[in-house]
């Protein structure tokens, strides 16, 4: 009698597990830095589709749709930079939605990531329209992830005089408007990159650097 009850209980538990409307074996995965694949088990009671939340060129999945309980193969390239992250979103035909987060460890640790504008205070003449500043970084494979923010001393729209910001492994390039006024103007430029932690439920590390640009007024 005990054996029969145990069998019935196990069967009920198994049936319940396999009838989840949308679930996964893991919602957060940490991947090694080398090239590889990992299998993601999807539990669903209806058809579902999957897509990357953002465009990604280092990872792919072998299928975009599935039915009920299925498996996706997630493939990824080697990571020679810092940790990187991608989110994989799922939606069922019942419009249930959920997301898996995958973080791939990089060859460069967050503590070793380097992003430094060497010149912290720069003065330019009123007629200056281009600046080239030294940038010290080891983020060769992650420069596309570096964001910039320009903050002006004045909030007036016409004072948005830094028109273009770009960077490579050695330099920060700025395109400015000539200053038509007699008074100098000031802007702060900050570069930053967010590096996801290779541990679940841990905040990312923000690596940042900045410089102040003062453009003199016309004489």
UniProtKB/TrEMBL annotation:
This is BACON domain-containing protein.
């Amino acid at each position: 009698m005990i054996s029969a009850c145990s069998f019935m209980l196990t069967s009920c538990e198994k049936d319940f597990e396999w009838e989840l409307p949308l679930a996964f074996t893991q919602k957060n995965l940490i991947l090694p830095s080398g090239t590889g694949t990992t299998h993601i088990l999807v539990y669903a009671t209806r058809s579902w589709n999957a897509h990357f939340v953002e465009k990604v060129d280092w990872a792919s999945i072998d299928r975009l749709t599935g039915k009920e309980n299925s498996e996706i193969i997630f493939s990824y390239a080697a990571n020679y930079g810092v940790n990187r992250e991608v989110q994989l979103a799922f939606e069922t035909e019942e419009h249930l939605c959920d997301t898996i987060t995958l973080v791939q460890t990089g060859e460069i640790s967050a503590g070793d990531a380097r992003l430094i504008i060497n010149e912290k205070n720069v003065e330019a003449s009123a007629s200056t329209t281009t600046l080239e500043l030294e940038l010290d970084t080891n983020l060769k494979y992650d420069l596309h992830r570096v964001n910039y923010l320009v903050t002006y001393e004045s909030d007036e729209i016409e004072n948005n005089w830094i028109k273009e910001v770009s960077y490579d492994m050695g330099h920060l390039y700025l395109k400015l408007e000539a200053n038509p006024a007699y008074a100098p103007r000031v802007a702060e430029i900050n570069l930053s990159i967010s590096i996801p932690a290779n541990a679940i439920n841990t905040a990312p590390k923000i690596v940042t650097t900045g410089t102040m640009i003062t453009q003199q007024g016309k004489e």
